Amino acid sequence: MEKWFLEEFGPYGFTLSITQYHPSTFSPSKVVIAPSGWFTRIRLTPELADDLRGWGVTYESQVEGYRELIRQELYRQYPEVFKPKDFTPKQNLSKFKF
Fold first, then answer.
1. Above 60 in pLDDT, residue 87?
2. Which end of the chain offers a freer environment for a tag, N or C, measured as fewer CB atoms within 10 Å?
3. Which pLDDT band, with edges at 50, 70 and 90, does 63 fall under?
4. Is residue 96 one of the residues assigned to a domain?
5. How far is it, in rounded angstroms, from Cα 5 to Cα 63?
């Protein structure tokens, strides 16, 4: 999951924290770090993928469903990062004549 996240959202400046463990349940997770350097509330946990299996979802669609949830939340929280940037070509400078 980490490799997919960094390939898809790394070019936009998003990164992941080191593995953190919940203090009471000791469940592992990684926190998404925004391009500004702030920690978000979005966590990548293996438990969410396991919860989807309980609803009778197959593994392939389970993983894709989990990825889609992450995409939607990032698009919702950080729309300015994903806006297409205006492209203006560089102007050609004329050569100096001495």
1. yes
2. C
3. confident
4. no
5. 12
pTM of the model: 0.66
- Structural domain includes residue 57: yes
User: Both ends of the chain: CA-CA distance in Å?
Assistant: 60
3-state secondary structure the chain: CHHHHHHHHHHHCCEECCCEECCCCCCEEEEEECCCCCEEEEEECHHHHHHHHCCCCCHHHHHHHHHHHHHHHHHHHCHHHHCCCCCCCCCCCCCCCC
Residue 43: inside a domain, yes or no? yes
CA distance 25 to 78: 30
Is the Cα dihedral 50, 54, 55, 61 positive or negative?
positive
Q: Which pair of tokens denotes residue 75? A: 């698009």
